[in-house]
């Protein structure tokens, strides 16, 4: 079972974490303060493959940890491949959508917006999650999907909304979704 904790995790969803301890398997721990030893690598690999590292902050910490390993680290390519597969699973099986919706309480983030972004990102090149989020931002997908959502009669009790109502709801969705996208993208700020 994978767990992580830090004081900053309790204070903010997306602040820069301080020192954390990671429990990645039976009795083994990793710490950002100490270099990873080779006995921790099989546990890390197992945690990635079993999807016990399954939140955006935990995957980003793992990604930074793997990037910091020396090139001569045994099984580094295998661990990097497992991390890539974990990112794909995180995005494709709605964990990313669920985290975004958890942050957009008033106007749940658009699934169709993420689906459109996923269609334009290769799963094999770089960080799939980051690519999807950047595509949402760079392609300006939020306004289009916010307007489409606001125009649905189902959002208005089955009646056709007025253009003013569509504009007000689309603006509210766009504002909340854009704010949350910026928060989530901060995970990749240096």
Report the strand count. Answer: 3
Main structural class: mainly alpha
Poorly predicted tracts of residues: 1-35
Span from first to last CA? Answer: 29 Å
**Main beta-sheet annotation:** 3 strands, antiparallel
Provide mean pLDDT, rounded. 83
How many helical stretches?
A: 9
**Fraction of residues in β-strands:** 5-15%
Overall 3D geometry?
Answer: elongated
Strand order of the largest sheet: 1-2-3
Q: What string gives the helices and strands in order?
A: EHEEHHHHHHHH
Secondary structure: helix percent: 55-70%
Q: For the CA atoms, what is the radius of gyration?
A: 19 Å
Question: What do you see in this structure?
Answer:
With 190 residues, the protein is mainly alpha-helical. The chain contains nine helices and three strands, in the order E-H-E-E-H-H-H-H-H-H-H-H. It has helices at residues 7-11, 41-49, 56-68, 76-92, 95-103, 111-119, 128-138, 141-151, 163-185, and strands at 3-5, 21-25, 28-31. Strands 1-2-3 form a three-stranded antiparallel beta sheet. Strand 2 and strand 3 form a beta hairpin. Helix 8 packs antiparallel against helix 9. The radius of gyration is 19 Å and the shape is elongated.
């Amino acid at each position: 079972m994978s767990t992580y904790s830090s004081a900053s995790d309790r204070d903010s969803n997306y602040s820069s974490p301080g020192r954390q301890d990671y429990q990645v398997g039976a009795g083994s721990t990793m710490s950002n303060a100490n270099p990873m030893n080779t006995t921790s690598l099989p546990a890390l690999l197992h945690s990635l493959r079993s999807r016990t590292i399954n939140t955006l902050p935990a995957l980003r910490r793992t990604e930074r940890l793997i990037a910091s390993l020396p090139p001569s680290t045994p099984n580094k390519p295998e661990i990097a491949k497992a991390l890539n597969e974990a990112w794909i699973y995180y995005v494709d099986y709605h964990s990313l959508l669920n985290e975004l919706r958890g942050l957009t309480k008033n106007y749940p983030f658009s699934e169709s917006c993420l689906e459109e972004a996923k269609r334009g990102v290769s799963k094999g090149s770089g960080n799939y999650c980051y690519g999807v989020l950047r595509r949402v931002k760079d392609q300006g997908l939020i306004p289009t999907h916010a307007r489409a959502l606001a125009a649905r009669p189902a959002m208005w009790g089955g009646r056709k909304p007025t253009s003013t109502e569509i504009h007000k709801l689309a603006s509210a969705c766009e504002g909340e979704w854009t704010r949350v996208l910026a928060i989530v993208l901060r995970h990749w700020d240096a």
